[in-house]
């Protein structure tokens, strides 16, 4: 029963984000706003209120590999476009890798020096 309550809570946050996005912030996707509201709720609520969300998250994580199938099919469906743009896509991936890895290393060193374990 907790899993069902958690799933309803997750859907409620997504619905709240979508409604606010449609009314006030059309440039920001609703599910992203819903995720931000869910994060705020998890940070502010007590542990007893977050247990249903935890149960729902564990259930959804067990099905995570199945959720990867539609994007993979979409990639294969657009393979011609990917092949035509292979150089720009590769450059973007390499550039983001060259930026992200040093920033993560720097942040990790800073957190360790501050005495906070991630």
TrEMBL record:
InterPro entries: LrgA/CidA (IPR005538). It is a multi-pass membrane protein. The chain crosses the membrane at residues 7-25, 31-53, 60-79, 85-108. It is found in: Cell membrane. One of its GO terms (cellular component) is plasma membrane. Pfam families: LrgA. Keywords: Cell membrane, Membrane, Transmembrane, Transmembrane helix. Its main location: membrane. This is CidA/LrgA family protein. The lineage of its organism: Bacteria, Pseudomonadati, Pseudomonadota.
């Amino acid at each position: 029963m907790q899993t069902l309550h958690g799933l309803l809570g997750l859907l409620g946050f997504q619905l709240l984000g979508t409604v606010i996005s449609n009314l006030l912030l059309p440039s920001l996707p609703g599910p992203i706003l819903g995720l931000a509201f869910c994060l705020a709720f998890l940070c502010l609520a007590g542990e007893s209120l977050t247990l249903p969300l935890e149960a729902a998250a564990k259930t959804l994580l067990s099905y995570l590999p199945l959720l990867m199938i539609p994007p993979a099919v979409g990639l294969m469906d657009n393979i011609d476009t990917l092949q035509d743009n292979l150089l720009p896509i590769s450059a973007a991936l390499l550039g983001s890798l060259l930026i992200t890895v040093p920033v993560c290393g720097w942040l990790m060193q800073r957190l360790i020096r501050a005495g906070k374990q991630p």
